[in-house]
């Protein structure tokens, strides 16, 4: 692509077999067939329907399908056993889980549509020597196009002629500073840096040009970035990996237990269908049917909390992924800074405290701003200078020497009375070299060597503070004299900055405390990035590592990984691919990477990262559609707030996972007792579903809504390999809380049986009042114990009474719904018929409450013992 930049305009035309009259209609039609339409093509993607079906065929779902199929088979061979309602209930669970999971994982791939929107719909071109206005999709290599102020470049083009054209490449490079275009050939291999090229998707800020199209559609630099965005793999979030792992472990355990106890039942002589129903019950009891919907709803509630803190979540698993972030690769402009330039310092001459009118005139009149209804828009730097000058009105120009990268300055001429005023601004070394005098309050004075040395010192001092230094000069010419940039009078120096956001330094400090590295990855100049980094506390040491984009491109993967080992790193002048290389290198190092971005150039890195964060105000549609999270206020501080919420999500999922898994043991033990002790089945399968998908659901969701602990940002990020379902959690849920609940449930079951005169070995029918009351007591004991479990699960170590009781209102709502649903199951006739329950005597409830209090006391005793052990290990010996 870049070779055309080396050629003069006439040779560029020859290389594409075109001319200044444009292509002929016949040749253009032939090329349209060969090169295709000028649009970004979509990559082949998995059908949404196929993605939807996959949610019903993963391992967790297959276990439930098996249980439902077995229940229907049991109902067919033994009608009236209650298996048909169970089968339909399990199918309902599969449907709910599948829809929730699909909604959670399916992302509308609209990044491509957003890319197309950035390309112009219509463009002016020459065809057979006649100017036409056509659809941009009709362009082919060799076409001649005419571009003016406000146009978006429709394809990659080589400038043939120009009148002061300036291009904003922010969507491709991330730099807000407009760049002037050249006609001459340049020896620049990088198309993004070649100033005689106009690239698709960029904006014409001012001036106009005639240009030769040399690349269209996916062959453009824009199309190449689109391809990177389409093909960049979306990594599975840590939470997705852990939920998949938990689901498989639990599903395998449930199926294995079902098979094992079916074999045991047959071995001890139980009837086939009784053993078959028993196996189904074991499977259903061990599969936490409410896990996936509870996880999804918990994440959805976290997104609402994040939205209130100006972080809009587009992809639910990103909530937790952000909480486990170890590195944030942050853009500079608009995220760490305010995305607006302002004049911070100026220098004219020693002892001058007021801004002279000559300096205001150069700052306010030497620009390419556009005016609408008296207001100005355009280059941020020129806008800042115009505001510094007091917002002078637009004036009539009589000439202009546009900004040029070789000259590094621009000049504007105005006719004033009987003279022509030339006003010049640019890089100090360029402008001062053209000056022979300097401004003083008494008039012009010669600019001697000592003063030039002093000006260099002042300029370096400003640059060391991260300011962009601009020199201003002027000269008057008599009418009829050719204006030129020589013998100018230096008016002064102006230092501008894009100031850091007010509280971004505090946010960066919170990241340091939380053990999160922040790496600035920007398209700006290294010295500017380094100065801002020091100002906000991102860089504290004397020797930070500054990686330039070109250096990153030349590094091997191993070299880049080693370079990123430095504690303080800044990446400057990076392209889209180089930013993605940094992200991938960090991920290979085992980091969980969050990336911010706002331009088209950021989209590949946003998709590659574990968590992509786009700017809501300044970001392009492409960046927003490629991201997982959109900042509504473009503020780095909102990222830190979102990290805090994300960390709470992982802890909360562990809390409700403990709560949900605890009830599995009192649901399984009745089936073991049924087989081994030859007693009536203490808990039916439909009653198990009443707990898993009924009474447990809202309390578990309340645990998922627990607010972040005060010290959550004082802890290091958890290790990448840390498991959601670990041994301490399993031991606490299954072998401690679960066994306590099972003992309470079986005690309640036997108490009711004995109270009603049941004797060991006596067979009870499924509708026997004594049997119904006993199973109801077993169910009620589990639910009452879960009430106490709700409070002890709020923290694995902290005493429950030390946690603020009203910080989570949903906790009390969940508790109320749990008890109300239990009362309806026990006393409402319709639900009694559905769940096989009977009304319990009121005198039994105090005993059930006492059992719940016992669980609370035992668990709080365990916590106190664990806290004592921790203090013993941490105290000095």
TrEMBL record:
Instruction: Report what the protein is called.
Output: Cation-transporting P-type ATPase
Q: Which residues cross the membrane?
A: 56-74, 86-106, 249-269, 275-300, 729-751, 771-790, 810-828, 834-858
User: The Cation-transporting P-type ATPase N-terminal domain covers which part of the protein?
Assistant: 3-76
The Swiss-Prot or TrEMBL record describes its family as follows: Belongs to the cation transport ATPase (P-type) (TC 3.A.3) family. Type IIA subfamily.
Q: Where in the cell is it found?
A: Cell membrane
Q: Does the keyword Transmembrane helix apply?
A: yes
Origin species, per record, is: Niveibacterium microcysteis
Keywords, alphabetical: ATP-binding, Cell membrane, Membrane, Nucleotide-binding, Translocase, Transmembrane, Transmembrane helix
- Indicate how the chain sits in the lipid bilayer: Multi-pass membrane protein
């Amino acid at each position: 692509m870049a070779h055309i930049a080396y050629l003069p305009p006439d040779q560029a035309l020859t290389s594409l077999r075109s001319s200044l009259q444009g292509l002929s209609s016949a040749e253009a039609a032939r090329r349209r067939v060969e090169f295709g339409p000028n649009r970004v093509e979509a990559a082949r993607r998995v059908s949404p329907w196929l993605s939807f079906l996959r949610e019903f065929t993963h391992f967790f779902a297959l276990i439930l399908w098996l249980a439902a199929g077995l229940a229907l088979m049991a109902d067919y061979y033994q009608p009236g056993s209650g298996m048909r309602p169970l089968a339909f209930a399990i199918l309902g669970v599969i449907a709910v889980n599948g829809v929730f999971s699909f909604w959670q994982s399916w992302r509308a791939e609209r990044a491509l549509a957003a890319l197309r929107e950035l390309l112009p719909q219509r463009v002016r071109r020459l065809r057979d020597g006649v100017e036409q206005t056509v659809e941009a999709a009709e362009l082919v290599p060799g076409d001649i196009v005419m571009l003016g102020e406000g146009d978006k470049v429709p394809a990659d083009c080589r400038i043939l002629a120009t009148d002061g054209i300036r291009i904003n490449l922010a969507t491709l490079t991330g730099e807000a500073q407009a760049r002037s275009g050249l006609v001459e050939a340049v020896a620049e291999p990088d198309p993004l840096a070649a100033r005689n090229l106009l690239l698709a998707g960029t904006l014409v800020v001012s001036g106009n040009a005639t240009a030769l199209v040399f690349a269209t559609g996916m062959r453009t630099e824009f199309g190449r970035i689109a391809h990177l965005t389409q093909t960049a793999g979306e990594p599975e979030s840590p939470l997705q990996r852990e939920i998949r792992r938990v689901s498989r472990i639990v599903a395998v355990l449930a199926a294995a237990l079902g098979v094992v106890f079916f074999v045991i039942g047959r071995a001890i002589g139980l009837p086939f269908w009784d053993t078959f129903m028993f196996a189904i019950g074991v499977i259903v009891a061990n599969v936490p049917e409410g896990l996936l919907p509870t996880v999804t709803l918990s994440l959805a509630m976290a997104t609402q909390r994040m939205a209130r803190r100006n972080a809009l979540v587009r992809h639910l698993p990103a909530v937790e992924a952000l909480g486990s972030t170890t590195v944030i690769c942050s853009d500079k402009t608009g995220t760490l800074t305010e995305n607006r330039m302002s004049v911070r310092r100026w220098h004219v001459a020693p002892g001058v405290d007021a801004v002279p009118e000559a300096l205001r005139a150069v700052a306010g009149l030497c620009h390419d701003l556009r005016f609408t209804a008296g207001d100005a828009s355009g280059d941020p730097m020129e806008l800042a200078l115009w505001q510094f000058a007091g917002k002078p009105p637009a004036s009539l120009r009589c000439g202009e020497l546009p900004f040029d990268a070789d000259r590094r300055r621009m000049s504007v001429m105005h006719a004033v009375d009987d003279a022509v005023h030339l006003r010049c601004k640019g890089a100090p070394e360029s402008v001062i070299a053209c000056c022979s005098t300097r401004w003083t309050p008494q008039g012009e004075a010669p600019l001697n060597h000592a003063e030039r040395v002093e000006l260099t010192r002042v300029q370096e001092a400003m640059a060391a503070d991260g300011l962009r230094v601009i020199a201003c000069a002027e000269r008057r010419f008599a009418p009829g004299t050719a204006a030129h940039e020589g013998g100018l009078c230096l008016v002064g120096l102006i230092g501008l900055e894009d100031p850091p956001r007010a509280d971004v330094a505090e946010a960066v400090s919170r990241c340091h405390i939380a053990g999160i590295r922040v790496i600035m990855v920007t398209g700006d100049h290294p010295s500017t990035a380094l100065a801002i980094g020091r100002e906000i506390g991102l860089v504290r040491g004397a020797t930070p590592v500054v990686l330039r984009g070109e250096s990153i491109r030349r590094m091997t993967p191993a070299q880049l990984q080693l370079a990123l080992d430095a504690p303080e790193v800044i990446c400057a002048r990076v392209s889209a691919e180089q930013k993605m290389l940094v992200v991938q290198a960090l991920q290979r190092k085992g980091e969980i990477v969050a990336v911010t971005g706002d331009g088209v150039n950021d989209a590949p890195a946003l998709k590659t990262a574990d968590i992509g964060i786009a700017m809501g105000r300044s970001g392009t549609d492409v960046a927003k559609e490629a991201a997982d999270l959109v900042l509504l206020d473009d503020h780095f501080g909102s990222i830190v707030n979102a990290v805090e919420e994300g960390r709470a999500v992982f802890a909360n999922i562990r809390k409700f996972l403990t709560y949900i898994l605890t009830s599995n043991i009192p649901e399984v033990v009745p089936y073991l007792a049924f087989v081994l002790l030859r007693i009536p089945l203490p808990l039916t399968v439909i009653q198990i579903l009443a707990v898993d998908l009924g009474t447990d659901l809202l309390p578990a969701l309340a645990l998922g809504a627990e607010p972040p602990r005060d010290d959550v940002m004082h802890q290091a990020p958890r290790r990448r390999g840390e498991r959601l379902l670990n041994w301490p959690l399993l031991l606490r849920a299954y072998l401690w809380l679960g066994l306590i609940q099972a003992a309470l449930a079986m005690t309640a079951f036997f108490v009711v049986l004995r109270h009603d005169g049941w004797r060991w070995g006596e067979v009870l029918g499924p509708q026997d009042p004594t049997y119904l009351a006993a199973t109801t007591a077993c169910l009620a004991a589990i639910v009452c114990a879960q009430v106490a479990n709700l409070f002890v699960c709020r923290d694995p170590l902290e005493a429950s009474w030390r946690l603020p009781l009203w910080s989570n209102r949903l906790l009390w709502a969940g508790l109320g719904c749990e008890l109300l649903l239990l009362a309806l199951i026990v006393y409402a006739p319709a639900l009694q018929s559905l769940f096989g329950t009977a009304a319990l005597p009121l005198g039994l409830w105090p005993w059930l409450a006492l059992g719940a209090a016992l669980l609370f006391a035992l668990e709080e005793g365990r916590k106190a013992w664990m806290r004592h052990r921790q203090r013993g290990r941490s105290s000095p010996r």
